[in-house]
Design a protein that fits this description.
Two copies of one chain form a homodimer. Chain A has three domains: 53 residues, no CATH class; 201 residues, Rossmann fold (3-Layer(aba) Sandwich), CATH 3.40.50.1100; 97 residues, Rossmann fold (3-Layer(aba) Sandwich), CATH 3.40.50. Chain A contains 16 helices and 14 strands. In chain A, the strands form three sheets. Chain A has a six-stranded mixed β-sheet with strand order 4-5-13-10-11-12, sandwiched between helices. In chain A, strands 8-7-6-9 form a four-stranded parallel β-sheet, with helices on both faces. The first copy, chain A, has a three-stranded antiparallel β-sheet with strand order 2-1-3. In chain A, strand 6, helix 5 and strand 7 form a beta-alpha-beta unit. Chain A starts with a helix and ends in a 5-residue tail after the last helix. Strand 14 of chain A pairs parallel with strand 8 of chain B, so a sheet runs across the interface. Chains A, B: It is an enzyme of class 4 (lyase). Chains A, B: Keywords: Lyase, Pyridoxal phosphate.
Chain lengths: 426, 426
């Protein structure tokens, strides 16, 4: 009896329907390789390493993908989701713009540059991708509640996706969170819970609840392996939108580090499946100086990540103890890339630079990534002659305060032509 | 000599390149039918009526459209833009989500309902569509400056599109505009000008500058005929995304009224071109009670619009003297639809209703439209058995204050499982 058949029986015994996870075969430990059946598991029972989805991919063609819907489900054969995923209510994220950024390229001295713009996703960040995959897992696993601890983008994405799916959604946030971020989640759910404490306290409480309560799917805790796969779609889309080829260099923000490793995984899968030509590419990680444990380890040439207490305006990147930090180091070093960090002032400048050159208003995470791109070019770590992609993961409307002090009207005038003419703008 | 050849000669004499406006033939007066050559004109020289684009359409096929880019330029043959439009830097708006809204339909007692969601456009409103067409016209007419008077969404769209196109952009706003809206424009342009006065004062100043200065393209003033055509793409997309067919009923917000008339124009063009089957459909207009001159005229059964002084939270719909109001009355009456209005409280409730049922966070304009949909069903003006589309034109992040008082955390708790269990959410 093949492993797949055993798995299928296991799944049926656990009440999960046939094909619930598409071409996913098992959960595999990233550290020791031990495999367990697909279910609400996230840590290896042997070594406590993180579990990842392992697949038996069929032959997938470019034509099949191109004939699919204009959202992440065009790649459903490469995700842990059922073949009928697009018929279940979801926010239909993805297939966001890949814009050639000629003005920004000229400003930075690059030959060819693209911005992958995830700020136009349904709730305006890349989190809609991962949450859509987590929602599918929660549904297939029969979860009663769709939940997360979060300080912003994730809360928005979970609350919106849960509402649309008609699932009970509970979102946990620190009680001192800015009101706009609270509103942007509370509008979607009756069950926004404010927790007295910082994000670490909220996160700890979420793990506790996940352990105590049956049927709660915390997207970034007990269904994390499914959730994290959603980030691969960023890599697939970039390759498809470039005309089924890989860029030479890519700059990706690093919070937990999951997104960077998944984009690399996506590129490798496309090569293995023969969907793009095999070629070398360099992966670069971007952090804010006020929370740069991975960048610090990279520069020191060490493998271990030393946790830090975050102090940066790039709050959506402010994870002091990044779960996938060591894998980020691996990917960046193996591909010949690097990890770099920029100050909060450089983040603010980069937000305005991207807006003024390309008409894209990014949040502080995107400012960090564009700022790091600039620094990598100036320091000679990134080759300006090679084709480069930079990822914008979220929208500036969510972090307005970052630039509110530095941009504004050039003049305030009386409503007359004479007053206007005096400004020198005529 | 044919009219087209004469036009082509005129265009060449005025320095405009051949094919600058695609299949557009002339500017035609909506009132008297007088035609003038394509140029920076917006009012009829004979009767001062509004000018509209007239076309000589070639045969266009579904396949040609479907093979185009995933943005509004897939419809370039039906717009006043050149055939190479997608190669000029622009924000690449459009092809936004058309979501089937089963939860909202159930809530309202409708059989089949769709939401066309323009909140995921590049600057988060439908204005990116019209501005992209205005930008093309400004470029082809050799304009030096890309400009607009605005209180919000239009300012964002113009500033972003101008930045990406590398054009000098000047945006005029009332000086008392909320800071978030100022930031969301100022981040893109060095030339945000605050004007002491209300929107009417700003608008008047813009017309004055357009008259005094050569080479200024005010998107909603002197290149308005090109600009307004961009709204047709909403209609094209809805039909294509429904599988090349028209809905039975559609509910559209009314500010100037341009969008509603252009969606109707788009449906008519698709029928004429044989791209969809001819069938009856009803068009409904949505206004806020605090600025409802068209709804008032509709209900009174009169043709004339009496201007009002706006007083509503739906500021992006607050045009007291709507230029296309009389045409909205025509379309809604001819198709068997209606024009309705809702109070600010109903707007707020509808924003939360759409968010809680479908995971879409709309601004006050969308709240108005969904609120009107609800009222139309309840009052028996809209048939619940017929397939209905409702348009969401913008993003709730831009009008947070509308719901900030009515949604928030359900509980604030200590970071412990015991405290959580006491909430009753477990």
């Amino acid at each position: 009896m093949s492993a797949a058949v055993v798995e299928s029986q296991d799944a049926q015994e656990s009440g999960v329907r046939e094909g619930a996870f598409g071409n996913a075969r098992a959960l595999s430990c990233r550290e020791c390789g031990h495999e367990v059946e697909l279910g609400p598991h996230y840590a290896c029972s042997e070594c406590f390493g993180p579990l990842e989805i392992a697949y038996d991919f069929p032959q997938v063609t470019r034509e099949e993908i191109e004939a699919g819907p204009r959202n992440i489900w065009r790649y459903k054969a490469l995700l842990p989701v059922p073949t009928d995923i697009e018929t279940s209510p979801n926010t239909e994220p993805g297939f966001t713009r890949l814009l050639e950024a000629k003005n920004l390229a000229a400003e930075l001295g690059l030959t060819r540059l693209w911005v992958k713009d995830d700020s136009t996703n349904p709730t305006n960040s890349f989190k809609d991708r991962v949450v859509a995959c987590a929602l599918s897992a929660a549904r297939e696993l029969g979860s009663k509640v769709f939940a997360c601890p979060s300080t912003g983008n994730l809360a928005n994405a979970v609350a919106a996706a849960g509402a649309r799916a008609g699932m009970k959604t509970v979102v946990f946030i620190p009680s001192n969170l800015e009101q706009p971020k609270q509103v942007n989640s509370a509008v979607f759910t009756e069950s926004l819970v404010a927790v007295e404490g910082n994000y670490d306290d909220v996160n700890k409480l979420a793990s506790e609840i996940a352990g105590e309560e049956d049927g709660w799917a915390f997207v970034n805790v007990n269904v994390r392996p499914y959730y994290a796969e959603g980030s691969k779609t960023l890599g697939y889309e970039i390759a498809e939108q470039l005309g089924w080829r890989l860029p030479d260099q890519i700059v990706i923000p690093v919070a937990s580090g999951s997104q960077l490793t998944k984009v690399h995984k996506a590129f490798q899968e496309l090569i293995t499946l023969g969907l793009v030509e095999d070629k070398p590419y360099k992966v670069y990680g971007a952090q804010a100086a006020g929370c740069s444990p991975v960048s610090v380890a990279y520069k020191a040439g060490v493998d271990a990540i030393r946790p830090v207490k975050p102090d940066t305006i790039a709050k959506s990147l402010a994870i002091g103890n990044p779960a996938d930090g060591i894998y980020v180091l691996d990917v960046c070093r193996q591909t010949g890339g690097a990890v770099e960090d920029v100050t909060d002032d450089e983040v603010r400048e980069a937000i305005v630079l991207l807006a003024r050159t390309e008409g894209i208003f990014t949040e502080t995470a995107g400012g960090t990534t564009v700022g790091v791109l600039k620094k990598l070019v100036e320091s000679g770590q990134l080759d300006p002659e090679l084709e480069t992609v930079v990822i914008n993961t979220g929208h500036g409307l969510k972090t307005l305060d970052a630039v509110a002090g530095s941009v504004g009207p050039v003049a305030t005038i009386a409503p007359s032509y004479a007053a206007f003419a005096a400004t020198g703008l005529a």
